[in-house]
Design a protein that fits this description.
Its main location: membrane. This protein is mainly alpha-helical. 64% of the residues lie in helices and 0% in strands. It has five helices and no strands. It is elongated, with a radius of gyration of 26 Å. It starts with 5 loop residues before the first helix and ends in a 13-residue tail after the last helix.
Length: 156
């Protein structure tokens, strides 16, 4: 069995790594590009894992040992169609977000803000303990924190 080309493996790793990095961004445009790059990297990985190229998988035309495996090709074609559908959906979402807000940034939701505020309060309480001062209770500190939703103290 022949080993895959090192150049193809490096391309797969680079496409998937850059794609995952872009998927972690807040901009929907970057998420779309990340999805496409990751999809292309996985498609290339499937083709590389499919083995060496061979003859058409038609009985009587090609000896069985020289036939190429049609399954990876079929899986890649299916993945291309699914990626196209996901890309169209995300492009529609990004366009609608841009129409409504003027940008395509994904905003924090209420629960993200509550978790971040609670972590900041916990960190402040521990810093007070390290500094030797009397820490105020988390409930008192949380009562002073307000956000634009009108939620007080991070409690629902």
């Amino acid at each position: 069995m022949n080993a895959p080309s090192l150049a193809l493996v490096v391309v797969v790793v680079a496409l998937v790594a850059v794609g995952v990095y872009l998927l972690l961004e807040r901009s929907l445009t970057r998420v779309i590009i990340g999805l496409v790059l990751t999809g292309n990297g996985v498609n290339l990985l499937l083709l590389v894992a499919g083995g060496k190229a061979g003859g058409p998988p038609l009985t009587g035309q090609t000896p069985p040992e020289d036939m190429s495996d049609p399954l990876p090709q079929a899986m890649v074609l299916t993945a291309i169609v699914i990626t196209l559908g996901m890309t169209a959906f995300l492009l529609a979402m990004a366009y609608r977000s841009w129409q409504l807000t003027g940008h395509d940034e994904v905003q924090d939701d209420l629960e993200d803000r509550r978790v971040a505020r609670r972590a900041a309060l916990d960190r402040a309480a521990y810093e007070d303990v390290d500094a030797g001062t009397e820490p105020e209770s988390l409930d008192e500190a949380a009562a002073e924190v307000h956000d634009e939703t009108g939620d007080v103290g991070g409690r629902s």
